[in-house]
Amino acid sequence: MNLLKELIKIESSDRTAANKAVAYAAEYLRRNGIAGQLHDNEGFTSYTAVIGEGEKTLVLNGHLDVVSGSPSQFEPIETEGRITGRGSADMKGGCTAMIQAMIRLKDADLRCRVMLQLVPDEETGGMHGSAYLADQGYLGNFVICTEPTNLRISIQSKGIIIMDIDFEGVAAHGSRPWEGENAILKAMENFAVITRLPILNTGSALYRKSSVNLARISSGDIYNRVPDKCRIGLDIRFVPHLDPEEIVAAIEEAVEGSIRVKVVEAGVNVDPEDPYVKLLKKSLARVCPDEILEYAAQHGGSDTRFFAARGIPAIEFGPKGNFWHGDGEYVETPSVKQLEDILVDFALHFPEG
Description:
By secondary structure, this protein is of the alpha+beta class. The protein has two domains: 2-157 and 268-352, 3-Layer(aba) Sandwich (Aminopeptidase), CATH 3.40.630; 159-265, Alpha-Beta Plaits (2-Layer Sandwich).
C-alpha cells in the first residue's frame, strides 16, 4: 500500500496540489510501463491511459483531489487492516486499486480497451476534469467510478437542484413586530411547506425520499427592525427517477417567493439488469464470495453523472471505509486489494456483456 500512502501525503485539497497528485500517479504508471496523456483544462490537469484493443471500452474513473483537512490528516497511519488519512477512502484507495489493476492488465490478453481516467476536481464540481474529458470524447461502454461503496455496486445516485428563494416582508420597529411582516419567519414557513411536498416525499426501492437541505440564509442588518427581505438557499437531492422540472414547478406553485434555480443535474439510474452490471456482480462473487450482493444507492453525487447524461451506464463501486470528509477517515486495506482483483477479473471478462 505504499502508493496509497504516498498519495495521501499529497495535500491535494487545492488545484495545484491536486495536479501534483495526478502527475505523481502518471509518473508511477510510466515507471510501470503504461504511457498515458496529461490534459490541461484552464490550469486543471487530468490524466488518461488506454490499454488493450477491441470495439468496446471500459472506463475506470477516479479523482485525486480531496476536501481540506488538518496537516496531521495528510500523514497516513497504517494499522492492522486499515490506513487512516485524508482521502484514504474518498478516493485515493479506489484510485490505487485502479492504477494497480491497469499495471496488471497491461500485458494481459484483453479483448477490449480499458481506459483509466484520473481527475483533479470532483470535490469542487468536476467540470474541469471528468466533464471536460467526456466533452472531449473520452467515453466508453461502461464506467466504474471507484468511490467508496463498501464493495457494494451502487447503481443510483440522487440528482441535484440548487436554488435561491427570495421572500418579501414588511419592515417595522423591532419593539412592535406585529406592525410588520417578518421575512425570516415567512421563509421558514415556506421552507416547511417545501419539505412536505408530495413529490419530494416520493421514494423508490433504494431511497425513502428526496432530501432538502436549508444550506444558506441571508436576512436582516440590525436587531431593532423587523427584516423585510430574506433569501434562503436550498440543496435538494432528488430520487433519480423524478423529473427535476416537475420538482421546480411544484415548489414555484407552493411558495410565496421568487425562485432562482442555479443548478440542475440529473441523477444516475442504471438498470440493474444491464449486462455489464450483472457481469460485475459475477466478478464480485468470484473474488469475494462472502460479500453482500445487494445493489446500493448514493445520496451524494459523483462524476458518474457526466457519463450517465450521455446514456452510458456508470456506477460507483469502491473499497470499504468510513468517515470520508471527516476526522478519522480510513480505508480498509484488504478491500483495496479485493477491489483491484475484481477490476482485473471484470476487465478480462468485459466483452462478454
